[in-house]
Amino acid sequence: MNDSIAVRRQAMADRHPAWTEMTLDAYLTRIQADFAARPLVITDAQTLTYGDVEAQATRIAGGLSALGVGHGDRVGLLMANYPITVPLLFGIWRAGAVAVAINTLYGIAEVDYVLRESGCSLLISMAAFGSRRFDRDLDAQLPGWREGRCAVLPELKAGFIYDDAEPSLFLAALPHGTAPANPAQPHDPAVIMFTSGTTGSPKGVMQTHDNLLRAAYAGAYHQAFADGRRAVFSLPLYHGFGLVVGLLSGMVVGGSIVPLLRFDPHALLTATERHRATYLMGVPTMTIAMMEQAKQQSYDLSSLTAVHSAAAPTPSWVWRDIQQTFGCQEIFTSYGQTEVTATIVCTQPGDPIDVVAETQGCIVMAGVAGLPEQDGRICEFKTIDPETGADLPHGASGELCTRGPMNSLGYFRRPEETAKLFLPGGWIRTGDLGQFRPDGNLFLTGRSKELYKSRGELVSPKELEQLVTTHPAVAQAFFIGMPDDRWGETGCAWIVRTEDGAVDEKDLRDWLAPKLAGYKMPRDIWFIAESDLPKTGTGKVQKNILKEMALAMVAAQAE
């Protein structure tokens, strides 16, 4: 092992000689005692120190308590990466409540679904973002939501708007109160993150305080973060990548984040230069765009020591290009999912570029946060036959199953779905296919589920099929994930019209546009007669054949 890597890990081990279970807000208090004056959140307009975040979190917790929000209540957070988002999270946790992370790409109908599904007591939403006016859309879709009088949201007690044009007004509008003493426990839910499922309806995954803290420490320890690591990213804090790898892991070493509101390659590289960021994060599509930008314009990226690109399939050439373009020796990719909180497999600093290009890395080494019987690894794996569920020999290719302290509690108010997620013995079925090579690195071979990732976001074909078939001219719809050099994966749709249906591609896209987040919009839409659908002997449509047909169509168009 490289001496500097060992030294960095030892520094973390010295600071955390044993694992102490605590809540996330208690961890903030502990960390800020050492790093109160250090920056935690940095933007061009504002810097929040650890001490600032601690004070604002306490103020917010008191305000939430005065509003009647307490232990186990859910608080919806529809916020982009504003500086206030960080103390909001810690304030929610300090009040004993659960943060419901809402995707800002969702349409208002999708936001409505999340609020109902999670039973939020309170919603905090930004007023506007880009061209969207969330305040007006929420008022129109959910009248009375601000006063807790929304008929379709009986559990919602109140709502607040954060206006970035007048940020000081938000805290001023909160009532004053006292944060409760010891309101939550380490194994209570801290966050509910919604993820697409094979049923088509997003499900809320409950992640505990201890899940997230172990994930944070494990990420920092495995990647051997240097003291004061400074991460720059536009990844949203409502996703595990931004929240855990970006924010929480950096806190382990007294680090900081430079969060951008939206992805813009020039803005990210400029922020890296201006704020001397050391760690650049993104999904592969972002990484590719930033490399293209860096080749067109000169930036001082000499502070940059590491790049982490993950959360979607990546063309192998990208990894070598990262090294050449950014001059970083530490290049990371990783594997994880919401149900297991965050990253559980990751490449190591100093791994040869071939390992980064061909695998997702090895099981994360977590030190005191890991399993003693697994030499401090964060979890253990086994593979099973995806059809029969039978255990397979070590090293065999099959469906990956994992267990360990980062296993989530399952799905909120979905006991049947949670029961399907877990196997006897505490194993979680990931739905992914792969095998561990003799060198201990994971090689993914595919997905046993139909879900695919576009722009780093999970997409459920079934959800889209259910939506499209509500169009009066559509009889059947079949969505399939397809490889895409820029987006990792993208969707294609095979559409069967009704007998009298006259819908064409433009009509369907226009109809879908206001109903879907952009990453869910299929790249290709083709129409097919019902009689031409490939089927099994029992009449089941063969999606694998539809995918082959789609690949052939794309290849023909490229000629």
TrEMBL record:
Keywords: Ligase, Membrane, Transmembrane, Transmembrane helix. Residues 463-540 form the AMP-binding enzyme C-terminal domain. One of its GO terms (molecular function) is medium-chain fatty acid-CoA ligase activity. The keyword Amino-acid biosynthesis does not apply. The chain crosses the membrane at residues 237-261. It is an enzyme of class 6 (ligase). Its EC number is 6.2.1.16, 6.2.1.3. Pfam families: AMP-binding, AMP-binding_C. It comes from the Bacteria. Residues 35-412 form the AMP-dependent synthetase/ligase domain. InterPro entries: AMP-bd_C (IPR025110), AMP-bd_C_sf (IPR045851), AMP-binding_CS (IPR020845), AMP-dep_synth/lig_dom (IPR000873), ANL_N_sf (IPR042099). Belongs to the ATP-dependent AMP-binding enzyme family. This is Acetoacetyl-CoA synthetase. It comes from Sphingobium fuliginis (strain ATCC 27551).
